[in-house]
Arginase
Amino acid sequence: MTAKWQDFQEKVEHCLCPPGNGVFTVNTAKERKAALHHKLYGQTENIEPLWKSSLQDLPTSEHKAVMLGISSDCGGGILRGANWGPLFLRSTLIEQQPQAKAFDIGDVRVIPHLLHDKYLNEGTISNCQKALYANEQSDYHVSPLSITEDVCTDFYANFPEKGIFGIGGDHSISYPLTKAYLKAKREQGKKVAIIHFDAHTDLLVERLGIDLCFGSWCTHILEFLPSPAHLIQFGIRSSGKPKEHWESTFGVKQHWAHEINERGCEAVIAEVLQQLRNDGVDELYVSFDIDALDAEFASATGTPEDDGLNPQQALTILGALADEFPITGADMMEIAPFTDSSLEGKSSSETTLREGAKISAFLLQAMNK
């Protein structure tokens, strides 16, 4: 193995932790973590050595999709709880979608009160480095967005033919995931587009003075795209401004939920495929906020919205895109299993996890092609 790979492996062992351990707890939900560890490793104790040993297989793994959990909801702002998404979605994938394979690199080590290192003073960073790495002068980052970007940047430098499938967490996490991806693809000479499923535009410049959050991440990745029109959004329906405002202000392309329902998936798909062909796009990244789906199917989330897409519509659009363009990066965001905003008589977490797992399984299989 090269020194470059060994440096990356050392960084992963410090900045990440075993799958499911991204939510820092002592006793709470211990049994849920143990259940996932048993599914992954066949045991519930001494997981850390098994996970570290498994990392050695990453260079030779047959899977192009590499799973990374980021258990942070600090960039959210309505109902919290998406930090449990990575643990619950992994378990649901194993139980309900066993055909969906990926190399699981683990979870980002999350201090739940932090978002990005740029918001911290030197004293806080030093204290957090001591807590995470037992070294108050460590070179490693301490906030989930900063750690994610750093690890993903080095990942693509080592494995340009593989892709990260990120599991959140709130949607602010897609900022470092897509930023690292877009910069890597630019260096490879690839022209890419981001396919973004969401009930909301996420095109604020800031929210209450914070520029990186669940409602603004799209704005801040536009500079890394070949063109702002290479951010293509599906399922939008909850917005204080009309579609014309967002498209004229930012130059993005939007396909609101009511348009998809009124025109039909086929007409919208044909328009998007023609745009991607005309723009000479090589590869796609899919960022999927579970609230793109109607609240009937996805109510265990921070901001459930009615009048959205149904799961089959989402899969039809994704299938048509994947038939023509490689999907080389993706994420699934905003599944909050412990929230309950469902209609009476419906199980919000079970339904949301089931539909989220179906779409995640499709994305993993597409990435592995």
